[in-house]
Amino acid sequence: MNDKNSFLLFKDLLEPVDDLSNEDAGMLLKAILHHQNGGDIPELSAAANVAFKFTKQQLDRSSEHYEMMGPEIRSPSANSAPSRPNRTGRNSGPSGGGSNWI
Questions:
Q1: Largest CA distance in the chain
Q2: CB neighbours (10 Å) of residue 39?
Q3: d(CA 51, CA 47)
Q4: Which of 50, 54, 94, 101 has the smallest C-beta neighbourhood within 10 Å, fewest atoms?
Q5: Closest by CA position to 50, among listed 76, 24, 71
Q6: Contacts of 41 (CB under 8 A, 6+ apart)
Q7: How high is the pLDDT of residue 29?
Q8: pLDDT tens digits for 5-43?
Q9: Helix crossing, 46-68 with 22-36: angle to 10°?
């Protein structure tokens, strides 16, 4: 188990999930959450199990990629500069007026 408190679900999961009943889709979501939290996977129907195996592979690849990143990328220190400057309250839009820029 790592220190992450979030994970990615890819949009291409929609198609296989749409083919599941609402009950199976709910069980799939529970299985994903249990997997990501290091728990036991609940018993799934055959269709939900196929979708879970596909999803689990993507989740595991994403976790491996996260673990390969250095700690400075995973959790930047409070002293590091933000990756994108804050434009709130500035007049720095493309025309200099900036009234529509946040």
A1: 59
A2: 11
A3: 7
A4: 94
A5: 24
A6: 31, 34, 35, 52
A7: 95
A8: 888 888 888 998 999 999 999 999 999 999 999 989 999
A9: 30
